[in-house]
């Protein structure tokens, strides 16, 4: 999403921010706060975890979180009706352009980060940028399951249910294992696996940002997600589905050894 939007938004000047009727909760902050951003130029687009970050010349950042069903759409003003069926927050820019949070289910959010703040609130390091030692420290600090830890955006940002399962299968780790039970070598394996699935998703046109959305091309490359009852691509054992951390989780019982007792070691 970032790669598609960046060239269309960079250098554009913000005119005004509008919110659709009934969607006030999606645009966080009072009207005055948004009016103050008028005439500022968009200098850069970044991604952090699942957030899309629009950096403004004045130092403020507009952060867009599409949640489950949202998407940031950039279009010409007269294309709005065809480009976005559920426009919730509309940022009008110069050159007759709009940046729109299109979101049928209204879970998405558009917030302002204060000047000088570069990352969204309650968000850990981005999963693609996190160092091996930082990942080890984050996991080592929680006795929760690996799956719960990976899905916790405050711990490490950008991993959704699909990518968590894929990375755990790739690194042969059971999702129910305690996060603080990993050896140093296992943390390295997991970090490599996370990078591989996230970069693979981006390269195939992207489940990277909205990880709840499985793009057509990436779906065919998934090893475990949605493949319960089918043979493991590595060893042929039938994959099984269960709930871990309250989320549907698919594992290969042969490749990903079950933790001994609840919570492993
Ligand atoms: Zn297997």
Written account of the structure:
The protein is α+β, with helices and mostly antiparallel strands and 265 residues long. The chain has 2 domains: 2-113, MutM-like, N-terminal (N-terminal domain of MutM-like DNA repair proteins); 132-251, Orthogonal Bundle (Helicase, Ruva Protein, domain 3). It has helices at residues 2-9, 31-35, 80-83, 132-140, 146-151, 161-170, 184-203, 216-219; strands at 14-19, 42-48, 51-56, 61-65, 71-76, 87-93, 97-102, 109-113, 240-244, 247-251. Strands 1-6-7-5 form a 4-stranded antiparallel beta sheet, covered by helices on one side. The termini are far apart. Mean pLDDT is 89; it is low at 207-216 and 261-265. Bound molecules: zinc ion (ZN).
Q: What is this entry, summarized?
A:
By secondary structure, the protein is an alpha+beta fold. It has helices at 2-9, 31-35, 80-83, 132-140, 146-151, 161-170, 184-203, 216-219; strands spanning 14-19, 42-48, 51-56, 61-65, 71-76, 87-93, 97-102, 109-113, 240-244, 247-251. It has 8 helices and 10 strands.
Net shape: elongated
CATH class of the largest domain: Mainly Alpha
Count of helical regions: 8
The percent range for helix content is 10-25%
Indicate the CATH topology of the largest domain: Helicase, Ruva Protein, domain 3
- Secondary-structure content class: alpha+beta
Intertermini distance: 40 Å
Q: Name the beta content range.
A: 15-25%
Rg over alpha carbons: 20 Å
How are the strands of the biggest sheet laid out side by side?
1-6-7-5
CATH architecture of the largest domain: Orthogonal Bundle
The largest β sheet comes out as: 4 strands, antiparallel
Strand and helix order? HEHEEEEHEEEHHHHHEE
The ligands bound in this entry are:
zinc ion
Uncertain stretches of 5 or more adjacent residues: 207-216, 261-265
Mean pLDDT value:
89
């Amino acid at each position: 999403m970032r790669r598609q939007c960046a060239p269309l938004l960079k250098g554009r000047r913000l005119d005004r921010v509008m919110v659709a009727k009934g969607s006030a909760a999606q645009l966080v902050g009072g009207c005055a706060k948004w009016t103050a951003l008028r005439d500022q130029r968009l200098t850069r687009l970044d991604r952090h975890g699942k957030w899309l970050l629009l950096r403004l010349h004045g130092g403020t950042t507009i952060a867009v979180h599409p949640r489950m069903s949202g998407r940031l759409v950039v279009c010409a003003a007269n294309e709005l009706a065809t480009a976005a069926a559920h426009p919730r927050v509309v940022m009008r820019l110069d050159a007759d352009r709009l940046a729109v949070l299109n979101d049928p289910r209204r879970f998405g959010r558009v917030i302002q980060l204060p000047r000088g703040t570069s990352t969204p609130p309650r968000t850990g390091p981005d999963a693609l940028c996190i160092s091996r030692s930082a990942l080890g420290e984050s996991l080592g600090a929680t006795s929760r399951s690996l799956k719960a830890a990976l899905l916790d955006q405050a711990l490490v940002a950008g991993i959704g249910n699909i990518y968590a399962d894929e990375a755990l299968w790739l690194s042969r780790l059971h999702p129910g294992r305690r996060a603080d039970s990993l050896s140093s070598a296992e943390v390295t394996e997991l970090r490599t696996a996370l990078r591989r699935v996230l970069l693979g998703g981006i390269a195939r046109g992207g489940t990277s940002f909205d990880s709840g959305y499985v793009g057509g091309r990436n779906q065919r490359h998934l090893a475990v997600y949605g493949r319960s009852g089918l043979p493991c691509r590595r060893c042929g054992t039938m994959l099984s589905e269960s709930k871990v951390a309250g989320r549907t989780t698919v594992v290969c019982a042969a490749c990903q050894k079950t933790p001994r007792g609840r919570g492993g070691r």
